[in-house]
């Protein structure tokens, strides 16, 4: 069985969508990968034929043991590359996801071992995300909350940001929101925006965007 870059991308995307708490169906993959419905149908057929995914009667997809092994390998390499780009080469945190998406397919097992030796394991990526599945419920169990749930006049520290939206990352960077940043909720406004204080300045952020930023409340 040949594992192509396309198959790797589909398997990794299933794992990523599961990690965001989404039920994974064909439409989910089309949206996440920005591909057509017929392309997804063909890919699902190949992945099922190769025993890499299961397809329930209601259309929901899940990874088999073999499929998850491949997805986890890609997620691990992606994570290491992001850390390499920031920790060794100093690339801006909001740029490294897109770079890692390209490089993860070209990393050899030997180079991966060397990255582990250099960087170690167990650290979060530059966006604050863990290397494998970390669902919204698991985050809540740790006491984290989405930024849009922070009560007025409360202070919290950004711990994790949804990394698969470059425009969102660039906007958050521009207003000073990144892992480690301390934010204070000032007001939830009638137009579905939030007024926050980041550092010494007030900033505006839409609730939908704030829902993709996870925070831990300050002691």
How would you portray this structure in words?
45% of the residues lie in helices and 18% in strands. With 219 residues, the protein is α+β, with helices and mostly antiparallel strands. The protein has 3 domains: 5-67, Orthogonal Bundle (Arc Repressor Mutant, subunit A); 72-119, Diphtheria Toxin Repressor, domain 2; 137-217, Roll (SH3 type barrels), CATH 2.30.30. Helix 1 packs across helix 2 (26-33), helix 1 (5-19) packs across helix 4 and helix 4 (65-88) crosses helix 5. The termini are far apart.
Features:
219 residues; alpha+beta; Arc Repressor Mutant, subunit A; Diphtheria Toxin Repressor, domain 2; SH3 type barrels; 3 domains; six-stranded antiparallel β-sheet; two-stranded antiparallel sheet; 9 helices; 45% helix; globular
Secondary-structure map with pairings?
Layout: H1 5-19, H2 26-33, H3 37-49, E1 53-55, E2 61-63, H4 65-88, H5 96-103, H6 109-119, H7 136-141, E3 145-146, E4 155-161, H8 166-174, E5 182-188, E6 193-198, E7 201-206, H9 207-210, E8 213-217
Antiparallel strand pairs: 1-2, 3-8, 4-5, 4-8, 5-6, 6-7
Helix pairs in contact: 1-2, 1-4, 2-3, 4-5, 4-6
């Amino acid at each position: 069985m040949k594992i192509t870059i396309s198959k790797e991308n589909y398997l990794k995307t299933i794992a990523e969508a599961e990690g965001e708490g989404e039920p994974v169906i064909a439409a989910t993959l089309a949206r996440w990968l920005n591909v057509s419905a017929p392309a997804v149908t063909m890919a699902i057929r190949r992945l099922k034929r190769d025993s890499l995914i299961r397809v329930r009667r209601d259309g929901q997809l899940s990874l088999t043991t073999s499929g998850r092994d491949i997805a986890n390998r890609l997620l691990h390499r992606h994570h290491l590359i992001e850390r390499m780009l920031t920790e060794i080469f100093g690339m801006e945190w909001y740029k490294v996801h897109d770079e890692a998406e390209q490089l993860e397919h070209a990393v050899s097992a030997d180079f991966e071992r060397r990255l582990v030796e250099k960087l170690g394991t167990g650290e979060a990526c530059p966006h604050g995300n863990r290397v494998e599945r970390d669902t919204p419920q698991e985050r809540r169990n740790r006491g984290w909350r989405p930024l849009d749930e922070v009560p007025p006049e409360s202070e919290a520290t950004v711990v994790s940001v949804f990394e698969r939206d470059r425009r969102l990352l660039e906007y958050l960077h521009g207003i000073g929101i990144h892992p480690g940043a301390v934010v204070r909720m000032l007001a939830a406004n009638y137009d579905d925006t939030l007024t926050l204080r980041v550092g010494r300045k007030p900033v505006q952020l839409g609730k939908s965007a704030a829902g993709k930023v996870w925070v831990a409340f300050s002691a």
